[in-house]
Design brief:
Elements (H helix, E strand, L loop, with lengths): L5 E8 L2 H11 L3 E8 L2 E10 L8 E6 L12 E9 L2 H13 L8 E3 L2 E7 L5 E6 L25 E9 L2 H11 L3 E6 L2 E5 L8 E6 L13 E8 L2 H14 L7 E2 L3 E7 L5 E9 L24 H7 L10
Parallel strand pairs: 1-4, 5-8, 9-12, 13-16
Antiparallel strand pairs: 1-13, 2-3, 3-4, 5-9, 6-7, 7-8, 10-11, 11-12, 14-15, 15-16
Amino acid sequence: MQLKGIHHVSAITANAKNNYDFYTEVLGMRLVKKTVNQDSPSMYHLFYADEKGRPGTDLTFFEIHRAGNTYPGTRSISTTSLRVKSDEALSYWENRFETYQVEKEPIKERFGRQTLSFRDPEGQRLRLVSDETNEGVPAGRPWSHSPVPASYGILGLGPIHLTVANLGKTEEVLTEVLGFRKKGTYEEWSVYETGEGGTGAEVHVEERTDMQPEKPGRGSVHHTAFRVADENELKKWKDIIDASGYPNSGLVDRYYFKSLYFREANHILFELATDGPGFATDENLHQLGETLALPPFLEPRRKEIEDRLSPLDTKKDF
């Protein structure tokens, strides 16, 4: 068995409306699901992805109104990458970020690929990575109604970056428990890949002994998930995690996929998530994200849940 790559990344926002505006209007991603945190349904859980919400393209946010500032450090998912088609696309984004006054860094080569680091309005650490020379896990497809031209659109998630106090501990979890392969190094980063490899299946790890653990808040990442083919494989992965001695959640039904959660040796939360059944389970593909979607076990509480959420208009005009 091999994990197939990155499944999704879940982060924190303090304002769902502002978050929705930035990720759909500036980054041009599609909101494929407007739902709630199933463990705390008084907060929104927003999913942005490609045209169909394919596994490996989902960047999600929990809205926590009182979330404070993030103080970067170890024990963290310190940067989330987003894939674009080409080096030319990065030049487009450089100009687009200038227009929208998005905080950014110069384009820079990292691990043989051109990249463009930037931050969202809450300080979320993000990076565009060019797939021009990439081989491996196929990318998604940009949404046809995006304000960003398709040739420059975001194709899905790229490498996930971890900052830890002890590289050896995380490397052991990645390679000996989860089956990743060490692919190489660049600057202070060690690179690991799984499945078909490539930008959609890499974890980059940085060891920092000069930092305290991160204090998370708005603009921080809560967890990252890796792709599992189906529930049968997820059950086998549970046996592997159990045998490794790591406490875990057991199988959790998230309705759109099934999951298992555990914290690796440097306290970063990992999730294993199935590729299906997907986001069109309870909505028409052409209307994804337009209404508040609730899993069946929360549907009887719809009025209570809606009354506790701030209105968020995500209806499309086409």
